[in-house]
Amino acid sequence: MRVFITGVSGFIGSHLAKKLNDEGHVVVGLVRDYLPLKWLDLALKGSFLVRGDVRDFNLLKRVLNDYQVDWCIHLAAKSIVGLATKDPVDTFSTNILGTVNVLEACRQLDVEKTHIQSTDKVYSDTLDATEESPLKATEPYSASKVSVDVIAQAYMKTYGMKVLIPRSCNVFGLDYSIRIIPNTVRSCLRGESPVIYEGEQSARQYIYIDDEVETLTFLMEQFSGVVNIPGHYRTQGEVVMEVLKHFPHLTPRWVKREAPKEIVRQSMKSRIVRDLPRTSFERGIALTVESFKEWT
Length: 296
Fold this sequence. Notes:
Blueprint: E1 2-6, H1 11-22, E2 26-31, H2 38-43, E3 48-51, H3 57-66, E4 71-74, H4 81-86, H5 88-108, E5 113-116, E6 118-119, H6 140-159, E7 163-168, E8 170-172, H7 180-189, E9 195-197, E10 203-208, H8 209-222, E11 225-229, E12 232-235, H9 236-244, E13 253-255, H10 281-295
Parallel strand pairs: 1-2, 1-4, 2-3, 4-5, 5-7, 6-7, 7-11, 8-10, 9-13
Antiparallel strand pairs: 10-12
């Protein structure tokens, strides 16, 4: 199988590329920014890397045509909520226009199957959301992803394209972004007390990267349409305390902050994938800490 991955140097993209390379697939990756990290060098070894931006429609068409792509997995996005809020124009341009470009290029080049990554944030503050739950946007990032989700469904229904739209919960593992789990692990590795926000009871779902990658590859082979990828439900305090079990010499630092503008409590159920998550939260955190120690 010849697979094109946008955002291949990102968290999910790099782990997915490694799995597909290890299985003998031909992986072509679109890269805008590339950090010189040992993990990325290993994960992307053997992949064909193309420099560019998902907003460059002609580039996407050239890649799909030149490499005779069978599957397109679209992961490139402005995905950190805080950063997206600071620059909504770039967020909408990258996330929405970039997705339209990917879908249209895949339609014109008759790509066998297209994967458009969505998120649990399209449900906002909803508990036990199913694939049929209404979509709600509360800030620029979730607004962009609701748009992306609906546009992908429109392409699937209008043009008969095979499109997978996974609405995934928070994925964790060896992640170099500024999300809660990598931030907490990095603080602990520096010998610093990680932060718990005092009085905040926000809770989300989390799935370990290996479970996410296995699920995405299975779904690409077997399914089209919308599917929820749920995980373990934890408060932000529970997440930090689980990481701290691996750093017994440290204690958390309790701080106050203004009421967050992000989702407070949210969870999903899936009517398609019944056996997730497979890796326990405790095991996933242990593997994450080990990975950071090995690769940073």
